[in-house]
Amino acid sequence: MTTSSARPRRRSRILFIFGAIALGIAVLKDWVGCGVYFAPQPFYHQIVTPDVAGGLQRDHDAEGKITDLIAQYRRQLPVGLVDMDSLVYAVYRAPEGDILFIGGAVVNPAGMQATFRNSGQTPGGTVNAGYPGPGGGQGVCITVPVAGVPVPVPECGWVTDDSYGDLFPIPDSATPPAAPSVTELADLVRQMRSDLEKNT
Q1: Which residues pair with 130 in a beta bridge?
Q2: Is residue 148 a contact partner of residue 173, using CB atoms and an 8 Å limit?
Q3: Greatest mean pLDDT range, 11-15, 28-32, 187-191
Q4: Residue 66 and residue 91: Cα distance in Å, rounded?
Q5: Which of 15, 17, 99, 177 has the most CB atoms in a 10 Å sphere around its CB?
């Protein structure tokens, strides 16, 4: 049974992770404002959040505890980057801990790729291209140093011309192994993607 003292600690980890993501998005706001423009396009991929993705069970109870943080994520995204009405999220139970997935339709794919990369280009962070699986597009994995967490937090995702998906852990504690490694998270992207992204 989870004690009440454990909940604030878990919530603080989520806040730190969202703060790291927000840092990359904040940097991107200047980049997007430099006149880069992508014309409206039809969406050929649809991002979905089934009850099971890649064999991992969805955790609806955990999702109910982070609605305010998802709202924060949405507020940080620059206008014109994604179709805000398309954004969806879900928490899945992985062997290494809970995994948060966020994805949707992309209006500016180059800008979305820059968001991932900028998030990892902080001091102590890393950026690596990754194979996103047979669905194509561009894959990227980053690690972000987060205050209070002894190991860099991994984040992996993919971007196509009209869609994106982003996976990152929600660690229960600051003690390793509280989250998957970047290699394990990249494997999860390839394992789960065919259930999270559908052709239309």
Answers
A1: 139
A2: no
A3: 187-191
A4: 10
A5: 99
User: What one-character-per-residue DSSP string does 54-81 give?
Assistant: TTEEB-HHHHTT-HHHHHHHHHHSPTTS
Cβ neighbours of residue 122 closer than 8 Å, sequence gap 6 or more: 20, 23, 24, 144, 145
- Kindly state the percentage of the chain with pLDDT values over 70: 69
d(CA 95, CA 93): 7
Residue 95: is it exposed, middle or buried by C-beta count within 10 angstroms (0-12/13-18/19+)? exposed
Cβ–Cβ under 8 Å, residues 166 and 140: no
Q: Which residues pair with 56 in a beta bridge?
A: 53
**DSSP string for residues in 103-152:** EEEBS-HHHHHHHHHHHH-STT-EEEEE---TT-SEEEEEEE--TT-SSP
pLDDT on residue 190: 94
